[in-house]
Write a structure and sequence with these properties.
alpha+beta, 6-stranded mixed β-sheet, two-stranded antiparallel ribbon, 5 helices
Length: 144
């Protein structure tokens, strides 16, 4: 999902991303990646409920460091925290609290895309819950 850089966003990118939210998934139910992977978001409200039931903020990092570097014992600091989720037009959106590194990455346009990490049912592809998100320089999504 591309982070949209409107003129207002360029002037105060962090405020916009914080107040208007960050879109984690496209509108469902069918979600496809450029690499051929496919998922289904049949019940985005259940994804939000799972987040709230978990009772903990979710990290946002650079390039999925939490999943790639963390298991190797390498540093994988968060650059922001997902504080809440909500559904808008069958898409999952996050309210994010950015730290200084995250704010800098957004305002400098060093990273353009956000990539969610979620669990899904292998048999059906149904998205079950969010785990984290990464700011990335490439997108997996088939949308611009």
């Amino acid at each position: 999902m591309a982070i949209r850089y409107t003129e207002e966003f360029r002037r105060d990118a962090v405020r916009i991303a914080t107040t208007s939210g960050l879109q984690l998934t496209p509108e469902g139910p069918n979600i496809a990646g450029r690499d051929g992977r496919k998922w289904i978001l049949p019940n985005p409200e259940a994804v939000v409920a799972a987040f709230r039931d978990n009772g903990a903020d979710l990290p946002i990092d650079f390039e999925h460091a939490t999943q790639i570097k963390g298991p190797k014992g390498e540093a994988a600091p968060a650059i922001g925290w997902i504080k809440d989720l909500e559904v808008r037009n069958s898409a999952v959106w996050a309210r994010v609290e950015w730290n200084e590194a995250g704010q800098s990455a957004i305002t400098s346009k060093g990273y353009r895309y956000v990539s969610p990490v979620f669990t899904f049912a292998k048999a059906t592809g149904d998205i079950l819950k969010m785990i984290s998100a990464g700011l990335t320089i490439e997108t997996c999504r088939s949308e611009p």
